[in-house]
Design a protein that fits this description.
Blueprint: E1 3-6, E2 13-14, H1 16-29, H2 42-45, H3 49-60, H4 65-81, E3 88-89, H5 93-102, E4 106-110, H6 115-124, E5 134-135, H7 148-156, E6 164-168, H8 171-180, E7 184-187, E8 203-205, H9 211-219
Parallel strand pairs: 1-4, 1-6, 4-5, 6-7, 7-8
Antiparallel strand pairs: 2-3
Helix pairs in contact: 1-3, 1-4, 3-4
Protein name: phosphoglycolate phosphatase
Pfam families: HAD_2
Family: Belongs to the HAD-like hydrolase superfamily. CbbY/CbbZ/Gph/YieH family.
């Protein structure tokens, strides 16, 4: 079965503000105030909680991996509490997935967000039922760009890897598709903007309304 697998953060939904808020909650708890900016640091947010903490500690000129490890559970707790305060699906995302499903494609999610948090978020956003699979950062011992989570997401969606593609927004997604041997389409409305062109994906997605045509061109 033809299958389309989606990244979550920065691809289906703009989660950056809530992610940054969770990191800043950690820094406020340390008495140093908000060290990250929701707009300027959005791209770092999509590289995960540890990346945000590292950036903040770098700006302080203090802290290392031990401090990052200590604050990471606190960041996850803060994020869970406010997981959908500001997060919204990108325009046309739900409609594009519905159109693909109606056209006979299986759909799934492969994300580097912890699985439980990803499940919570897509449920809160009201779109969990649109995806036949959801594989997170901790579903397997490895995460993207290792291809194993992608393979699992296709399998759980009932699809075939040889007739699948990945929709994402970062170099991690590009590398995942390369490792899996599948085409990749990268969105240009994420924090990296049209900078994703430099990653030479098989296609660029300027808006979700164009996605069904792009998918048809790539995997039939």
């Amino acid at each position: 079965m033809r299958t389309v697998i989606f990244d979550l953060d920065g691809t289906l939904a703009d989660t950056s503000a809530d992610l940054i808020a969770a990191a800043n909650a950690c820094f406020r708890g340390l008495g140093v105030g908000d060290l990250l900016d929701p707009a300027a640091d959005a791209l770092t947010a999509f590289h995960g909680g540890r990346a945000m903490l590292r950036l903040g500690f770098t700006r302080l000129g203090t802290g290392g991996e031990a401090e990052v490890d200590l604050e990471y559970p606190r960041l996850l707790a803060a994020y869970e509490e406010g997981i959908d305060r500001e997060t919204r699906l990108y325009p046309g995302a739900a409609e594009a997935v519905e159109a693909l499903r109606s056209a006979g494609y299986a759909t799934g999610i492969c994300t580097n967000k912890p699985e439980r948090l990803a499940e919570l978020l897509v449920t809160r956003l009201g779109v969990r039922g649109l995806f036949g699979s959801l594989v997170g950062a901790d579903t397997l011992p490895v995460r993207k760009p290792d291809p194993a989570p992608y393979f699992l997401s296709v399998d759980r969606a009932g699809g075939e890897v040889g007739r699948s593609l990945l929709i994402g927004d970062t170099e991690t997604d590009r590398r995942t598709g390369t490792a899996a041997g599948v085409p990749v389409a990268l969105v240009t409305f994420g924090p990296a903007g049209r900078g994703v062109e430099a990653l030479a994906p098989e296609a660029l997605v300027d808006d979700f309304y164009a996605l069904p045509g792009i998918v048809q061109a790539l995997i039939g």
